[in-house]
Amino acid sequence: MITIDIIKDALNNRIQKSIKNGNSFYEHSAVLIPLFQENSELKVLFTKRSNLVQHHKGQISFPGGGVDKEDKSLEGTALRESREEIGLQDKDIKILGRVDDLYTAVSNYIIHPYVGLIPYPYKFRINKSEVSRLLFVPLGIFMPDNMDSSHELENFTYRGPTYHFNGDTIWGATAMIMGNFIEIICDKINGTRINAEKRG
């Protein structure tokens, strides 16, 4: 069973993979992977982007966005964007750690994902110009056995990690980040199991 303690341990006892930006060719963004517990089940909060945003219209994503010059850190960017998009206050977020950086060719961004524990239920305030609605997806949906390897779009076939939940499809950068997150957790669980077997 995956617990918050396992997740925190997995995120903080590894070397995170960072993407260098020596020539400042890429833009930087940061997102929050918000986790919460409902009836002892771990779930992930996602946003469905509105059709008014510049990039990735109508797609499932995390709260987050580009770095502003006023942001003091990448974590600060993730927190600010979560506050602006869904009304999630900084004091209500407990950062557990980070997953690996991800480069997105479509928007030319390096994404820096942070995992945070949030309270639930919560009085979210959705910024309708950026977010059309929220999704609450069980963490177990993202286990490797549930992953598809492609998604049919209107004009092309996306080939990459894809997950389905209640009629929604999670693909692209969001799915890749979740795949990385689950891989980190599974590596920790499997490593713990192997070490326990050796001791036995």
List the SSEs and their pairings.
Elements: H1 4-12, E1 27-38, E2 41-49, E3 60-61, E4 64-66, H2 74-86, E5 94-98, E6 102-104, E7 109-117, E8 131-138, E9 148-152, E10 157-165, E11 168-170, H3 172-199
Parallel strand pairs: 1-7
Antiparallel strand pairs: 1-2, 1-4, 2-3, 2-8, 5-7, 6-7, 9-10, 10-11
Helix pairs in contact: 1-3
Structural features, described:
The protein is α+β, with helices and mostly antiparallel strands. The chain has one domain: Nucleoside Triphosphate Pyrophosphohydrolase, CATH 3.90.79.10. The chain is built from 3 helices and 11 strands, in the order αββββαβββββββα. The strands form 2 sheets. Strands 1, 2, 3, 4, 5, 6, 7 and 8 form an 8-stranded mixed β-sheet that branches. β10 (157-165) and β11 (168-170) form a beta hairpin. α1 (4-12) crosses α3 (172-199). The longest helix is centred in the C-terminal third of the chain and has 28 residues, at 172-199.
